[in-house]
Model the fold of this input.
Amino acid sequence: MTYQPPVRDHIFILADILNIDQYGDLPGFADAPMDVVSQIIEESGKFTAEVLAPLNAVGDKEGCHWFPDHTVATPKGFKEAYAQLVEGGWPALGAEPAYGGQGLPHVINLSFTEMCSSANMAFGMYPGLTHGAYSAILAGGTQDQKDLYLPKLASGQWGGTMNLTEPHCGTDLGLLRTKAVPQADGSYKISGTKIWISGGEHDLAENIVHLVLARIEGAPEGVRGISLFIVPKFLPDSEGKPGARNGVYCDGLEEKMGIHGNATCVMRHEEATGWLVGTENQGLRIMFVMMNEARIGVGLQGIAQAEAAYQAAAAFAKDRLQGRSLTGPKNPEGPADPIIVHPDVRRMLMDSRAIIEAGRTFLFWTAMHGDLAHSHPDEAVRQKAGDYMALMTPVLKGYLTDRGLKVCSDALQIHGGSGFTEHFPASQYMRDVRISLIYEGTNGVQALDLVGRKLAADGGRAVMSFFAEIDAFVAAHGEDLILKPFVEGLDAAKVQLQDGTMWLMQNGLANPDNAGAASTDYMHLFGLTALAYMWAKIALVAQTKIAAGDTDPFFANKLVIGRYYLQRILPDAASHLAKLKSGSELMMALPADAF
Amino acid sequence: MTYQPPVRDHIFILADILNIDQYGDLPGFADAPMDVVSQIIEESGKFTAEVLAPLNAVGDKEGCHWFPDHTVATPKGFKEAYAQLVEGGWPALGAEPAYGGQGLPHVINLSFTEMCSSANMAFGMYPGLTHGAYSAILAGGTQDQKDLYLPKLASGQWGGTMNLTEPHCGTDLGLLRTKAVPQADGSYKISGTKIWISGGEHDLAENIVHLVLARIEGAPEGVRGISLFIVPKFLPDSEGKPGARNGVYCDGLEEKMGIHGNATCVMRHEEATGWLVGTENQGLRIMFVMMNEARIGVGLQGIAQAEAAYQAAAAFAKDRLQGRSLTGPKNPEGPADPIIVHPDVRRMLMDSRAIIEAGRTFLFWTAMHGDLAHSHPDEAVRQKAGDYMALMTPVLKGYLTDRGLKVCSDALQIHGGSGFTEHFPASQYMRDVRISLIYEGTNGVQALDLVGRKLAADGGRAVMSFFAEIDAFVAAHGEDLILKPFVEGLDAAKVQLQDGTMWLMQNGLANPDNAGAASTDYMHLFGLTALAYMWAKIALVAQTKIAAGDTDPFFANKLVIGRYYLQRILPDAASHLAKLKSGSELMMALPADAF
Done:
């Protein structure tokens, strides 16, 4: 069975939950009334399902090929598909009109990006990282740099990468050694080795623009001495076309558990010509512009792989005949019942739906706040939206990828022995999604970002604003009989999250290890509460439709899945709260050599 | 870093927790006083670490090779290692002296089996399945069959397999179609296709003995018409040596997510000569003798892979320098601290230890009950031990493999980006362990076996006996100050497990879907309680040693890890109880076509 884009659910979220038409007077949204957006979503679904999904298993089996002349060939069919991607203008959806983009809100681009990742995660990373490079230059580049690079990156004609990691430094970028030597003409010579560079070399685009972190000779040690550079594979000539080959070479590819179709490169910079982006020693600040965007993109990958894996599992469960229902045959004419009759198979499918549908809503809802933070005329709205973006980003990345792995593992489990073979897609989804818990900052780093930076920022303004928003929802809808379980579940989760937040404020300062020890459980508690809020918002819309006479089972099903979430997923909140409040004492008690 | 056999922990469990010397007057145990057992464990560690562990990555990368003449070559080095295994007499450890075995208790064989699986899971499956075939013939074969086959299987000179699954039937064996036609000489002609046959063909042993489920012509449909047959690859000649080639052929190998070093075969039986084991149509009963043993072996694989993955992660965490401790530099001379200083890394390591050490104890404790059920002179002891074996087997298989996957995934996570590459062992451990949640009955099947059969058997005698044993422990040790948290945690878990058991009794009969819907959460609640009991037993021994003046940190560390289990793992019990009591209504509410 092939990937079925969840077009209906995307339209439901954008039209009914977020009601994007209310922002019709904002830039970007003005060009995207819901009827136009619906068409874009339909077309996104067609393109990703018809062009990208058929190449997913191919890419996994074949992988990328490295050649001694430092070139890399992507799997069969990727080049043609990439040409169609560029031809269709897909990379330009969310880019600025000034640079050839369509200027649509980020939240609409997210819809395409999810489908792209579901259909073929390894492929989707090529345009994904290109968009990251685009964002970094947009945020920190000179006007000349923007004019030269952004149109090429926006269209996808050129690819982009992020060159951060070195063999001895991943999370701790302060240790990086790649050096930049200033030249008379204002450029720099960049030298050093970067590893794990996704899309560092490939045959999809005529040029590749590397965004490289390096230390200018004489710069301070640590994170305060890191600068960001543009290092194109081919130096643009006077007409802006790919000219002389620059000194940046792919020396090999990484063998990986998954995403085989994406080239993970060792990159050697050998006196490569680079140009500074922004000011000296301010490289991390700009890199984090693209990093934050990338983190939301990674959270999206968690949900995207979960969606694809769930679909494969549901199809298998309806098709595979094995055993009989405990309550009597459901397929009496056949030799056995389809395994979807078994409650434990249902459990995994329902768990998956409960996470995917609310997780997607949470992603879109947060991304829309990003758009509002960018373009809303009201300063107060912009501030609250910006607060939410900052607060929710680590939760989206850490919580949704963690849950995404669980969904993919359950999908494999539903396939039984078939799932462990590579003849079915389940193994690939689980192997591919596994990286999402690691890159762009491991989930542990996300949790620490949440408890260490995001909670405390501006005196806790962001989280208090979130609590107030939930309180207002509870106050407004607590009397509705259908909504009652949702409101009660949400309120109980919020009380637990407040309790955990208070514990962190009291104990995290006294001993920072308490904050570290609590961080992952707190992030999960936060994610559970956020998804409870999303289900409450979904239920409100669904119930309103039903009350107005809409008999489409789509809405009734939402109420069932949402109530299932409350009964079968949300109980984990209490467990996470109990764990986080146990502190760091026992966790840190053993000496390192006892491990 | 290479695998370090947990010799000390194995000796601790056998000598101090199980105190096997108390059974010195029982057969098997009589030949295994603790000083001898300690030597066996030391030697097991040497053999597995020195001979098998170095081939683990080799086997993963190279995999097995199938040739058109239906032969299969195992990865480089496997053949020589297998010869050393046979030479060393390792397969014979637990076999009967009458058939050339050493007749040691199963619990001691388990120690070797765990190390074998940690060092090289794919390799360990070859002797593992051979032992399964041995057990089936021992349980159901004629004396002639035993005399002919058991010595060869016990020594490992011949390999063994289980041929159950067919393309259209895995869990539901009642659907199987492989047919057996009686011959004048008392043999049968077996024809049909079997899939996913581990070790179905290889170059390690001079003959392979397949235990094959098939339906005798005219037998009833469903599970009541299934018989078990011995189908050797080479028909034994008059001297019992491999003679004529039998009609059983490997037609190909499965491409799998992991255990690449084990040949997973498609087996074609083409009028293969087979001999009935036991009586007609009673094949499943005998097959379940080996299946139950195999299920404990699979639970052991969960812990074995967890142990190996944990070791790799701990070594990486002590070696990798990245960032600084939140409480000030711990490695001020170096460029950064080792990542083991970070609480969230510790969390994953401590979670792993808390599961592995109690999980291993639970496995050994249950296996020892298997030995007592077999050979204790007191009928009451045998009965209780047999009850425990039956009750705990699905919990060991389902709960410990599920937790084993989590530990392996956490170990990969601790490696960061390195974990996703195939240069480090973490990916292989996670890919290899994944099958353990599936084969020998998926974990969902285990959960259903637990709630549907094992709980209700003999009026719930087994589970009530377990509750009584815990109550006695609580009563005996509730006043000890050091043991208090263990006793309180155990008692609270037991109360929750009783609550869940009661709920099942009241609601599972009324609607069988309620039992199915509750089954996996109940199995986890059971596993959590069992491990709380193991930690209480471990704490009792450790505290007794400490009180007697033993200053070995091994014992103090056990108390720390045990208390960590209570604070950081056991809170999940309440969550599982809440979920299981929510019933099946919402889980089963959607029509199948809504998925």
